[in-house]
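Let us work through a complete example step by step.
Step 1: write down the sequence.
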Amino acid sequence: MRTRLTLVGAALMAILTATPAMAALTHLWTFDTNFTDGVGTANGTAVGDGVSITSTPGQFLVGTGGLRIAHTGVTTTPDAGTDYVSITAPVFPTTNPMQFSLGLLYRFDPTIGVNDSRNFLFETKPGFSIGVGMAATDELQYFLEGTTLSPGPNLPNVNNGQWHQFAAVWDKLSTNTLKIYHDGQLVQHISLGANNFNQASQAGGMNIGTFRGANDRNWVGYIDDFRIHDNAITSSQVAAQFSAIASVAPSTPFSFENNFDGVAKSDLNHDISHPNWILQPSGGLTAGGFSGNFLRTTAVAGDNTLAIQFTDLPDHGGVQLGMLLAQLDSLDPIRDGDRFIVRVDGVEILNAGFGYGVSGSLSEPIVTTGDPVLDAELLSLRTASGVQLFGDVNFLENVYDLSQLSLFQSIKHTGSTLLLEIIGRQNQTAGEFFGIDNLTLTLQFIPEPATMMLLLTAAPVLARRRRRRIA
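Step 2: predict the structure and record it as tokens.
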């Protein structure tokens, strides 16, 4: 899916005329325990059953909780198919502002609900003075109503399971500029010229988690530490809010490792099941990198499945897999359809045939995936080839280091749970096996570039939309 963040409207960051000496935080929604304004009086009301306060680690960054919006897509009353926090008091000034700023932390997570083609973090009402959201290309975007500001360079992709910061500083008083920050970095510095925002368009307050019409364009994910100031905050103040995100990614990646010689080394909660796989000493397979014990399929025709269910995963953008694979004895993908399959959350990552075939009658080794390039890559990963290391002396073994396989280097994944399935599909009931050792799974915390493009358009562009549903 492609989705894109949308900051809409002309009232972008207004909070009354103020000099730096009068700097003040005028609104703060911490979402620690409820939807109230901790500084001002612009309290929010939850609309829809998909709105809640979450205290689950990874679903908030500051304080003790955050806003979780898991839009259901249900079109029945009372929410009419939308889930958001409604604020009916104006939060930006109703007279022409000279200085104001805003900042918030957010994470998009399409795995927890149904989302549209555009997904708004918030938008003012009844008009779109200010709005921020994600548009149809997974990129951050904002709009200012009534301005003629032109696009800048490179919007970042924010649909990656990571926390991000958006901040903006409106300063008509001293610099006559608009500064946009993303993830603590100044990414756009725009001259405002004669541009002002439409105060009447934001007089009805704002919706957090959807756009002004509140009938689609829902946010799906998490929002935290939403703050509005009545002055032009400094870059240091922006960086202070971003520091909450900077502390999320660990210096050492979270990982799981099992060499089947004892208790698995793991930073991750997991449950492993392998009814048709058994432990066996590595023996001659040490020539290919195996050590101690390894896990191999039993003499069961059909799918021999090793399943590992990971739960309560910290925030991440992808996973990396690794393992040693041995083709043992008379496996033959051409004659018997023997296959080695790896799935993540039911999605097939690898489906490959490995074998040697009937002794002496077929070329060694056999690798078949349907993709000649992938076949060649797999053959290049052999650590032991065409040698008798295990079982029947009439058949040769091959060992492959799949930790180097390109398909396993970065598998996109952002959910809090993950099901890894390793399947040995065998035609025979005896004399052929798959073996694995040194199985690893590592979470990847993928940084986003700090550059982004700001796309500002007129109201008719915002009115055009297309729906996209993701379960």
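Step 3: interpret the result. The first strand starts at residue 4 and ends at 7.
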